[in-house]
Amino acid sequence: MNDHHRDRRAGAWSRAGRVGALVALGAFCAGCASVPRGDLERAEENACVTGPYKVGRVDYDFEDEFDLVPSGGGMPAYPDVDVRATVRYPAKTAGVQQPVVGPKWWRRYPLIVFLHGNHATCPCSCSHACAAASRIPNHLGYDYLLDVLASWGFVAVSIDGFDVTCAGSFLMSDYEARGRLVLRHLERWQDWSANGTDPWGGLFHQRLNGKVGLSGHSRGGEGVVAAEHINRVEGLGFDIRAVNAIAPTDQDPGIHYVPQRPYYLLLAASDGDVSNLQGLRTYDRTSLAGAAAQSEKSMVWVYGANHNFFNTVWTPGFGAACASDDGSGLGRISDALQRAVACQTIVPFLLHHLHGAGEIEWLPRDGRGPEGLEGVEMYGTYQHPTRLDVDSFDDGADNPNTNPLGGAVSTSGGFTTFDEFEFKSGGADTFNASFRHFTHGLVLGWNSTQSYRTELPTAQRDVSAFEALVLRAGQILDGEVLNALDTPRTLRLTLETGGGTLANVDFDVVGLQSIPYPYEYNGGKTVFGMVRIPLVSFRDGNQPLTLTDIRAVRIEFRGSGLVAIDDIQFSR
Ligand SMILES: [Ca+2]
Ligand SMILES: [Ca+2]
Ligand SMILES: [Ca+2]
């Protein structure tokens, strides 16, 4: 067990507290804060307690407001689309249509928009013909998040995607349709805040600060990623600061939507709906090594969580028709715990990127989550946009003896497996039976102590600008041949300088649980976790190791094991 590992996120989050000047709608409000600093410090302790503001509620419903027409014109792909949502916001008094709290010139708020996924529209079918009162209110299942967010100074909106749910068109994919519906709502809100044209007599006039966060579940997750994509490539100008996807799909037939804003992906191991975890591709594809566009990305993977319990309307026991438990396998967690996982990760993510809160404890450590999530086994990965990619294994060769920097890779020679593979659900390569990723990486198998060494070319050896050595790793499901369950094994990470100095950090795989054992149920799930070792942990005797001439990274594998490795990085 190595305590340095515990500190791995502090630097990243505190640094990311730098937020640029407020723009757009809040132009004369530059420097003002949506939430007092003292309250944000409380949120950094636990974001899922009630924040400083009372919660107001309004709902809007513009039935059949517009036809969703493809960009070239012609027949509507989705006619008569409703613009309907429920809203929570920071209010002077709790209740319906109460005034927004704080003076306009000082307190303006970011806008968060949620979109649900595919589900029955009428009980229990894909019909759109039932009476309005009988429709399944799919958008009301995130109230538990909206309420908390409003109390922390967000205008939080959850869209009813009725006309694009259980629907399809040859003219436009329903993922694009979902994205465009989100953007339609953003247009409405922009107008309401700028011009006081909202249906409640100007309740939201000059109440938004222009920053936007998006969150979507299932097909809605792909939909909000599509919204960010369309906003960017069509130059619509919405200031989208953060995108969250919960158990998302990734199945648009025309475009693999990839976010280029800070992205948080929440995945459930017992998901019985999107059971191939296809949304993991969105994480693997964005901010690739060498790509011009780089943004922060993070992911949490939760054992025993299913698809539906993140939405209370899809959860049995809340009174809505057509609710079900889609999960399977052992180690299931309760619906209440699933909502706690969503709250304890999504709310801090949005607080961080839209309010500038820092140092939030939200990625799980040591296989455990933040406060209130004791007993939940969850793993997180995080990639900073500023880094040196030592090896992404994505240079196309699947040659284990070189890294993409051109450095040599060598081993002690006794690995039972040492090769590069594609990790892709349903793919043909050797280890794809349980892998749910969309990337290439290295597989190392061993049954006695072995070592691996990857070399940095001379021009790449100054890593003093970085803060941590990072890699993604996962144990491979192998019938407990090399990966015996609960058997202690340790790894040693070593930095080797040009002068031959070796600085080591050891850690215990089982104790740390940062390298997940696969979830054995629901088809078997192998997903990467993260090892992030602060560079200050590497010592030269009693001195900090000099980081200007790092010649190689070594990993020593002890005991026995079969692991996959990806994305060896020096990272901020
Ligand atoms: Ca309609
Ligand atoms: Ca290689
Ligand atoms: Ca890779």
Strand order of the largest sheet: 3-1-2-5-4-6-7-8-9-10
As a whole number of angstroms, the C-alpha radius of gyration is 24 Å
Report the bound ligands by name, code or SMILES. calcium ion
The CATH class label of the largest domain is Alpha Beta
Write down how many β-strands occur, each being a DSSP E stretch of 2 or more residues: 23
Helix amount: 10-25%
Q: Could you please say which CATH topology of the largest domain applies here? A: Rossmann fold
Average pLDDT, all residues: 90
User: Please, how many helices?
Assistant: 8
Largest sheet geometry: 10 strands, mixed
What is the CATH architecture descriptor of the largest domain?
Answer: 3-Layer(aba) Sandwich
What count of domains describes the coordinates? 2
What fraction of residues sit in β-strands? 25-35%
Could you give me the name of the CATH homologous superfamily of the largest domain? Alpha/Beta hydrolase fold, catalytic domain
Topology readout:
Blueprint: H1 10-15, H2 37-45, E1 54-68, E2 78-91, E3 95-96, E4 109-115, H3 143-151, E5 155-159, H4 174-195, E6 208-217, H5 219-233, E7 239-246, E8 263-268, H6 280-285, E9 297-302, H7 335-355, E10 378-383, E11 387-391, E12 409-411, E13 417-424, E14 438-446, E15 450-455, E16 468-475, E17 490-497, E18 502-508, H8 509-512, E19 529-534, E20 539-540, E21 543-544, E22 550-557, E23 561-571
The chain binds calcium ion (3 copies).
Please tell me about this protein's structure.
The structure is a single chain. The chain is an alpha+beta fold and 572 residues long. The protein has eight helices and 23 strands. The strands form four sheets. The protein has a ten-stranded mixed beta sheet with strand order 3-1-2-5-4-6-7-8-9-10, sandwiched between helices. Strands 11, 13, 14, 16, 19 and 23 form a six-stranded antiparallel beta sheet that branches. Strands 12-15-22-17-18 form a five-stranded antiparallel beta sheet. The longest helix has 22 residues, at 174-195. It is globular and about 70 Å long. Mean pLDDT is 90; it is low at 1-28. The structure holds calcium ion (3 copies).
